[in-house]
Amino acid sequence: MRKLHSIGILGGTFDPVHFGHLRAALEIQEQLRFNDMRLIPNKQPPHRDMPLASAIDRIEMLKLALIGTSFKIDSREMERNTPSYTVDTLMTLRDENPTASLCLIVALDAFLKLPTWHEWEKIIQLANIVVVPRSGWTMPTVGLMADFLVKHSLADPEHLCSFTAGKIVQQKTTALDISATQIRALIQTGHSPRFLLPNNVIEYINDKALYDPARSKS
Questions:
Q1: Is this prediction's pTM over 0.90?
Q2: Of 27, 67, 94, 163, which shows the fewest CB atoms inside 10 Å?
Q3: CA-CA-CA-CA dihedral for 108, 17, 47, 119, to nearest 10
């Protein structure tokens, strides 16, 4: 099968970006051999509270974290004044890359909640989906998402980039039990988040006092 130009897409608030994001993106890019890996920060996430750090600060942290990598920051959601719906992002990416294999990376817990996403059924028409296992969550065997998997699953991930859209694969990555919530809580209680995210990002957070409780109340 002919391999298409492939673009890996990892969205999130990145509040802050950490090694869980970065390691998963690296491993999936290497395993599936994407030509391009894009990290797309949300401006107005539809399913969670607004990020504590500003859009500018979250992009600056991403820039620092990605120094020395081939990853790209795609800021299109930051430039919209509407909720950061994945389907809208994929539509613009598809318009720009009509023949590319677009591959949306989602953790298993997010995948199971896909039917709550805005116009979720269009997502598989615009991109492939790479599902990353997550501790405590299992793939469904009955119900809507089980049927969705049966319809779209691709047995061999090696062939994913031969399809522009419409396929689902599962891809394991090194399990790093790190969350941005955990990192913010450590900082807010005076503990060090070292070894959970890049040192230059920690320095930026400290310089800006991004998650200082006193600052968040002001």
A1: yes
A2: 67
A3: -70
| Cα distances (angstroms) measured from residue 3 to each of 7, 71, 83, 90 | 12, 20, 33, 20
Nearest to 75 by CA among 87, 99, 92: 92
Distance of alpha carbon 68 from alpha carbon 89, whole angstroms: 26
Let me know if 136 is exposed, middle or buried by CB neighbors in 10 A (0-12, 13-18, 19+): exposed
- Kindly report, residue by residue over 16-75, the tens digit of the pLDDT: 999 999 999 999 999 999 999 999 999 988 878 889 999 999 999 999 999 999 999 999
Residue type, 151: K
Instruction: Take residue 72 and report the two structure tokens written for it.
Output: 């790209």
Strand bridging mode 72-73 / 128-132: unpaired
| DSSP for residue 153 | B
Q: Which domains does the chain have, with CATH numbers?
A: 6-177 (3.40.50.620)
- pLDDT tens, position by position, 122-137: 999 999 999 999 888 9
